[in-house]
């Protein structure tokens, strides 16, 4: 990469230095002497000066347009990350440690054995000093999710592939207390929810509104029966309603969530969520020892904090945002230098014209506006092309945006105004210098 950058820099120097050098070395002496006294059609500017200014102006317009595209993309990503950081995830990620435990199927071949192991491990971890709660679940937020067909048992029984798909989570008792999700109605899973007892389920408020549109003021879902999944034909009785939880910052793949107890269908692999006092990562060794105490052959690795998992949801956007911010900042600086350079060059070449205007009675404000207007023209042209390019290209990052449109008007207007202010500032300095030119000195140049 270093070698490529060096070669590219040298090639750029040679390419852009060679063209004007060849032009200067091949100049016709007599034509040049004759052209020095000729005056162009626009405000007395020699044609060669007009050509040079126009070429530089086109480059500045391109600079501004590209800089606008970069800056608009960066601002859109900044807005997306701000929206993501203010999303209500429905649980408390602070001081929450998570780790996945997978049981070997030959030794834990039944639901009873798996549920008993996870329950004993949760009790052992919860007994550790500094640990408030510990639970096992099929999934926890930010670590994936599964779907299952769900149907209200009171309606006509649909075929399995016709039922709506909802997010499925199986968990041990205390799941909602541990992750910090409010229980709105009913109860949590308990010791009474055994494999041979009535099948039970807890649903979130989105699923409650989906099946009973009048919730929370209409029909109470508690006690209602629903079909969950396709393996167990028995309907599950709803015993609780909890607040909505986001399985990822951008939302859930399916609108609602249904929770089942581990004792009525324990999975082979589970994620342990551990609510701790202070830094969760300092409990990794103690948790690993608890796992070995129950089964020395089970690995307990890849401990993560829930804060880190939530932060990872914005990681890709944050990296791209930093890159775009850096590139757009440099591009904005280059555009500022480009505008200043072109206007300053134009003022230098038009010194005699400015002197004549002053001698004929032009005021300083007239000269100031004459020069600033040239800079504004370049900026407005660059803004026009930049907006068009941004509308076309920002759609490429549409999948990375959250809570903001790729054509957000406020962003486009704000960036355009920024470039207009930058252009005015870059034009003002050489404009002031032009306005202060002494007519007699200018005429002698």
Written overview of the protein:
With 445 residues, the chain is α+β, with helices and mostly antiparallel strands. It has two domains: 46-86 and 315-444, no CATH class; 96-277, no CATH class. The chain is 50% helix and 14% strand. It is built from 13 helices and eleven strands. It has helices spanning 2-25, 29-35, 47-85, 111-126, 175-179, 205-211, 284-294, 306-312, 315-349, 351-359, 364-393, 409-435, 439-444; strands at 96-102, 131-137, 146-152, 165-171, 183-186, 200-204, 225-228, 236-242, 257-261, 269-276, 304-305. The protein has a six-stranded mixed beta barrel with strand order 3-4-9-6-8-7. Strands 2-10-1-11 form a four-stranded antiparallel beta sheet. Helix 3 runs antiparallel to helix 9 (315-349) and helix 9 (315-349) packs antiparallel against helix 11. The chain is elongated and about 105 Å long. Mean pLDDT is 86; it is low at 37-45.
Task: Quickly list its features.
445 residues; 2 domains; six-stranded mixed β-barrel; four-stranded antiparallel sheet; 11 strands; single chain; alpha+beta
Topology:
Layout lengths: L1 H24 L3 H7 L11 H39 L10 E7 L8 H16 L4 E7 L8 E7 L12 E7 L3 H5 L3 E4 L13 E5 H7 L13 E4 L7 E7 L14 E5 L7 E8 L7 H11 L9 E2 H7 L2 H35 L1 H9 L4 H30 L15 H27 L3 H6 L1
Parallel strand pairs: 4-9, 6-8
Antiparallel strand pairs: 1-10, 1-11, 2-10, 3-4, 3-7, 5-8, 6-9, 7-8
Helix pairs in contact: 3-9, 3-11, 3-12, 4-7, 9-11, 9-12, 11-12
Rounded average pLDDT: 86
Compressed to H and E, one letter per element, the order equals HHHEHEEEHEEHEEEEHEHHHHHH
Shape: elongated
User: How many domains, as an integer?
Assistant: 2
- Tell me the Rg in angstroms: 35 Å
Strand order of the largest sheet: 3-4-9-6-8-7
Oligomer: single chain
Relative strand content:
5-15%
Low-confidence stretches: 37-45
The total of beta strands comes to: 11
Share of helical residues? 40-55%
**Class by SSE composition:** alpha+beta
Q: What does the largest sheet look like?
A: 6 strands, mixed, barrel
Number of helices: 13
Head-to-tail CA distance between termini = 49 Å
């Amino acid at each position: 990469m270093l070698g490529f950058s060096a070669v590219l820099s040298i090639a750029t120097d040679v390419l852009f230095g060679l063209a004007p050098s060849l032009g200067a070395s091949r100049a016709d002496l007599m034509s040049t002497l004759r052209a020095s006294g000729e005056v162009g059609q626009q405000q007395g500017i020699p044609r060669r000066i007009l050509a040079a200014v126009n070429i530089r102006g086109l480059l500045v317009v391109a600079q501004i347009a590209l800089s606008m595209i970069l800056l608009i993309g960066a601002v859109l990503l900044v807005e997306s990350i701000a929206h993501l950081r203010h999303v209500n995830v429905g649980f408390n990620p602070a001081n929450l440690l998570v780790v996945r435990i997978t049981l070997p199927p030959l030794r834990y071949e039944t639901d009873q054995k798996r549920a008993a192991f996870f329950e004993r491990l949760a009790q052992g971890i919860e007994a550790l000093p500094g640990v408030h709660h510990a639970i096992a679940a099929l999934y926890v937020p930010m670590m994936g999710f599964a779907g299952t067909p769900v149907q209200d048992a009171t309606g006509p029984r649909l075929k399995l592939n016709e039922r709506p798909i909802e997010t499925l989570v199986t968990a041990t008792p205390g799941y909602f207390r541990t992750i910090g999700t409010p229980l709105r109605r009913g109860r949590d899973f308990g010791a009474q929810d055994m494999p041979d007892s009535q099948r039970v389920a807890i649903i979130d408020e989105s699923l409650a509104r989906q099946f009973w549109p009048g919730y929370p003021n209409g029909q109470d879902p508690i006690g209602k029966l629903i079909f969950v999944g396709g393996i167990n034909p028995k309907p599950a009785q709803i015993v609780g309603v909890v607040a909505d939880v986001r399985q990822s910052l951008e939302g859930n793949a399916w609108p609602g969530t249904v929770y089942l107890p581990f004792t009525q269908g324990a999975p082979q692999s589970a994620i342990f969520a551990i609510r701790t006092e202070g830094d969760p990562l300092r409990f990794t060794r103690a948790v690993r020892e608890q796992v070995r105490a129950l089964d020395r052959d089970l690995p307990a690795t890849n401990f993560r904090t829930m804060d880190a998992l939530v932060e990872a949801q914005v990681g890709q956007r944050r990296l791209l945002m930093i890159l775009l911010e850096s590139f757009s900042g440099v591009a904005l600086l280059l555009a500022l230098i480009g505008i200043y350079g072109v206007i300053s060059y134009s003022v230098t070449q038009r010194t005699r014209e400015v002197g004549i205007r002053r001698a004929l009675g032009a005021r300083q404000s007239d000269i100031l506006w004459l020069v600033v207007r040239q800079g504004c023209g370049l900026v407005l042209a660059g803004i026009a092309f930049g907006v068009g390019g941004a509308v076309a290209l920002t759609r490429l990052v549409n999948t990375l945006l959250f809570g903001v449109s790729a054509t957000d008007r406020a962003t486009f207007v704000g960036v355009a105004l920024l470039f207009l202010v930058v252009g005015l500032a870059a034009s003002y300095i050489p404009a002031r210098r032009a306005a202060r030119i002494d007519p007699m000195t200018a005429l002698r140049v």
